[in-house]
Write a structure and sequence with these properties.
Strand content: 15-25%
Mean pLDDT: 92
Number of strands: 10
Radius of gyration: 22 Å
Structural class: alpha+beta
Distance between the termini: 46 Å
Oligomer: single chain
Helix content: 25-40%
Number of helices: 9
Length: 324
């Protein structure tokens, strides 16, 4: 008969399981989990306080979104726009005049995905402290980058994005009151209703559902009157709860409206883009000592194993509360 080889790690897990099967063991384990969750909450709220975001947090809780003014400086905006335009021009095969383009030059909206590795500027934006602090409040310290892209919008009605909640990834309603996904929307060009601005519906995060067919409309006589046009300057960032209804108006004036949308999710939600095990080596080396950046790309996300099975050294750090 062949012998079964038991690793030291398996023995340790077995001892832990045995210890938990006593009253004292269960109480100690429960206390460990409570402390872990409470410590994470304290860290997240301390970071928000240190960054002066208390008013933003109140707004986020009450209306479902908040704006942080002037997050990106002029140089960062210029570099981000240049990188996005380079991608679009390479894909379309023509140059685009951001200030004067008409529908004949570029009509409607095109989503430009997977921008993180196009230029180092996107790594810098991803780590902007103030929006990221609010993401950790909404999604926990273990949150993941789901996608980073640009909604590149020219003139025309086909640029309308109907109102929706980002829980539209198959999540059934009613939604939980806590956020499972969340968004940071950076304005790279001026936002106004005529310029195709982002639209948000205050308080809709509390309704825990998608809008109906009659509630999704933006623009025209049937436009939802509860929707608010987000008039923003380049560099402003809007952060919203995953339940919050949002969309965007059609652009009615010449030029291109550009944003950078950093969509994030809780540790257990499937990301839109593949980053874990797909991050270029030079990016990993550049951030070798930057654990928060690596965590956003899935360094502590334990799922997706193959024949070798789960890595319990990672799994033991799974979140236990809202904030870790």
């Amino acid at each position: 008969m062949s012998e079964t080889v038991i690793s030291d790690e398996e023995r340790l897990r077995e001892r832990r399981r045995a210890a938990m099967h006593t009253r004292d063991g269960l109480e100690k384990h429960a206390q460990v989990l409570r402390v872990k969750a409470e410590d994470a909450r304290a860290r997240v709220l301390a970071e928000i306080g240190a960054l002066g975001l208390e008013a933003n947090l109140t707004e986020l809780e009450s209306v479902g979104y908040t704006t942080i003014k002037g997050v990106l400086n002029a140089d960062t905006i210029k570099r981000a726009k240049a990188a996005i335009v380079a991608r679009v021009e390479a894909q379309t095969g023509r140059s685009i005049d951001l200030e004067h383009a008409t529908a004949e030059d570029f009509e409607g909206m095109s989503y430009v995905p997977y921008l993180l590795y196009d230029d180092e500027v996107f790594e810098e934006i991803l780590l902007e402290p103030r929006p990221l602090a609010l993401m950790r409040y909404l999604l926990g310290e273990s949150c993941l980058l789901s996608s980073l892209g640009c909604h590149f919008k020219g003139m025309g009605e086909t640029g309308v994005v109907p109102l929706h909640s980002d829980n539209g990834n198959g999540m059934p309603s009613p939604y939980p009151p806590y956020s499972q996904v969340a968004n940071i929307n950076y304005a790279l060009t001026p936002y106004s209703r005529e310029a195709g601005a982002l639209a948000l519906v205050p308080g809709s995060h509390l309704w825990a559902r998608q809008p109906s067919a009659h509630e999704i409309v933006l623009g025209g006589d049937l436009s939802n009157p509860a929707a608010i046009s987000m008039d923003l300057a380049p560099g402003d960032a809007v952060i919203w709860h995953g339940n919050t209804w949002h969309g965007s108006y059609p652009r009615e004036v010449p030029g291109i409206r550009m944003n950078l949308a950093a969509y994030m999710c809780r540790q257990y939600v499937q990301t839109q883009e593949a980053h874990k095990d797909h991050t270029p080596q030079d990016v990993l080396e550049r951030h070798a000592n930057n654990q928060p950046f690596l965590n956003l790309l899935g360094a502590k996300q334990p799922y997706g194993w193959q024949a070798d099975g789960p890595d319990f050294s990672i799994m033991q750090h799974n979140p236990v509360g809202f904030f870790d």
